Structure formats: C-alpha cells, structure tokens
Design the sequence.
C-alpha cells in the first residue's frame, strides 16, 4: 500500500480524467492521496472531491505562490473550515516561504506565521513548502514555538537541514526530484536519514520525473519514486513500503 502525501489532483488539468487517474492509482495500491490546499477559492473544490472519491483526503492552507489573491478574511475562513471539518482535515498546508517568486517577502512571512499559529491552535500538523528558504522557515518554526510537526514537502538539502526539521517533529517528503542524477546531494541525504522520517509524494501535476519532463506529473508515478528511494536505502522493499506508509499515518491528523 502507498500514500501520496502531496498531490494537487484538484487542479483543473485533472478535470477531464480525474476518475481514470484515481482508478489507475487504486490498481497500483495507492490507497490514499493527500490534496494540500493552495488558495481560498480552491478549498471547497478540494472538500467536494474528497466527498466524491474516498481515497482522497485534504489539507487546507494558503500557498505562498498564490498570495496575489490573498485577503485577511481568508485566514478567518481557514479557521472556520478547520473547525467545521475537524474530524476530516489532515493538516494546515501547504504553507511556506519561497524566494523565487514575485510575492512580497514580508507578506509571505506574515501569512506563513499566522497559519503556523492557526495550526498550533487547532493542534494540526503543517505541510511546508520551501524554495531556498530552509533557514527562514526553521527560524519561524522556532520563533512561533510550533510544536505540531508535519511534513517538509519535496525536501532537498543537507543531512543537517533534514535533522533540524526532524528534531522539530517533521517528516521528510521524498518526491520525483530524486529520480534525477543531478540531485546527488539530496539523494545522499535521503540515503542517510532514519527510516522513520521518510514519506512519499508526487506533487503532481508539478515536478515531473526524469524522462517525463514537460508532461503532467501524476500520482500514478508514485511507485517509480518509491523504487528510486529503495535504490538509495539499505532496507528491504517491504520494510521501506511499510515505513513510508506508517510515517504519513503517524504524522497527519485523521488518517
Ligand atoms: Zn504542492
């Protein structure tokens, strides 16, 4: 059994064939797919899709990439939805900081930290987005005394950076990036981390695997990411499969 801990299957590029994709995931033993939130206008669609397809589960949050449409009311709505769906929602996310986008840094930081407080208040883990921002994220997690842990999505970085997150209660998201030989630093890191911190994800439709550049990524490719990770690890296939599954279950709420 496999869990895709991060997949934007709510995006409209899946509107025409979502049922087929999910069907094929079921055949590949992918029994749970987590849809992280990106923007307020998308939250209801995520919730509706999870009603429609039992293998889908949702997290709610404001992704830094989409903050151009941000209004302070969205944080109020987020809290309300977390209350309303407290027996279903898995986490607050994806939230984070991104140095590569044209969104005011101060605003990113403010919205990120406010969501950390909301997650702490609701006792929910977070799904973290990073791009060239590990130091700043870690600084905020510590400054806000965040204790709920979560997942660092699409981790890339050093063993030291990974261990800092692990000490803060986080799991390390392993995505399609590891299928590229140029990701040697991250591959090396993933080979050395404790097995109880690893979780799998596709980040579909983004982050295509090697050989699929320019194409829509899909949760159907999760087993290929698993196989790439297996090559880096000393464990048996069964041990790694079981650990990756239980690590998500032990981290996200309501799973
Ligand atoms: Zn994402």
Sequence:
């Amino acid at each position: 059994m496999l869990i895709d801990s991060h997949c934007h299957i709510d995006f409209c590029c899946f509107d025409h064939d979502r049922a087929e994709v999910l069907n094929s995931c079921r055949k590949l033993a992918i029994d749970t797919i987590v849809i992280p939130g990106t923007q307020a206008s998308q939250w209801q669609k995520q919730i509706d899709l999870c009603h429609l397809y039992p293998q889908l589960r949702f997290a709610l949050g404001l992704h830094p990439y989409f903050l151009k449409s941000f209004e302070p009311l969205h944080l109020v709505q987020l809290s309300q939805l977390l209350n309303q769906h407290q027996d279903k929602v898995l986490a607050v996310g994806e939230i984070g900081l991104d140095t590569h986008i044209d969104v005011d840094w101060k605003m990113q930081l403010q919205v990120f930290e406010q969501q950390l407080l909301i997650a702490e208040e609701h006792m929910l883990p977070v799904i973290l987005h990073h791009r060239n921002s590990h130091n700043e994220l870690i600084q905020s997690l510590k400054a806000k005394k965040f204790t709920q842990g979560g997942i660092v999505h699409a981790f890339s970085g050093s063993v030291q950076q990974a261990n800092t997150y692990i000490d803060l209660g986080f799991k390390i998201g392993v995505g399609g990036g590891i299928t590229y030989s140029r990701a040697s630093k991250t591959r090396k890191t993933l080979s050395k981390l404790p097995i109880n911190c690893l979780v799998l994800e596709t980040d579909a439709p983004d982050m295509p695997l090697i050989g699929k550049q320019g194409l829509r990524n899909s949760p159907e490719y999760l087993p290929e990411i698993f196989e790439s990770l297996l090559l880096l690890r000393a464990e048996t296939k069964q041990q790694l499969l079981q650990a990756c599954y239980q690590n998500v279950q032990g981290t996200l709420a309501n799973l």
